[in-house]
């Protein structure tokens, strides 16, 4: 069985009206929908991760990598963690 690939969503869900890419994860709405489909293969997810990384530059790429790696290890993105800490 394939190991689950964690969604690249880092809880910054706003879409750039010009590019159609999410400011947080650089995915399109269609790509987000495909990720949620239980029939989507890991091969597609790996390719999509490679593609979204190519879409990002500078601070967006740095922030995404830091938050996504944290999410993989801790199960929650840094942005979401910080928002939850504000509520406490």
Description:
The structure is a single chain. The longest helix has 17 residues, at 58-74. The chain has helices at 29-36, 42-55, 58-74, 78-87. It is 56% helix and 0% strand. With 88 residues, it is mainly alpha-helical. It contains 4 helices and no strands. The model has no long low-confidence stretch (mean pLDDT 93).
Keywords:
mainly alpha, single chain, 0% strand, 4 helices, 88 residues
Please give the share of residues in helix: 55-70%
Give the low-confidence spans. none
Gap between N and C termini? 39 Å
SSE ordering? HHHH
Largest sheet: none
Tell me, rounded to a whole number, the average pLDDT.
93
Task: Note the beta-strand portion.
Answer: under 5%
Radius of gyration, whole Å:
13 Å
Secondary structure elements and their pairing?
Elements: H1 29-36, H2 42-55, H3 58-74, H4 78-87
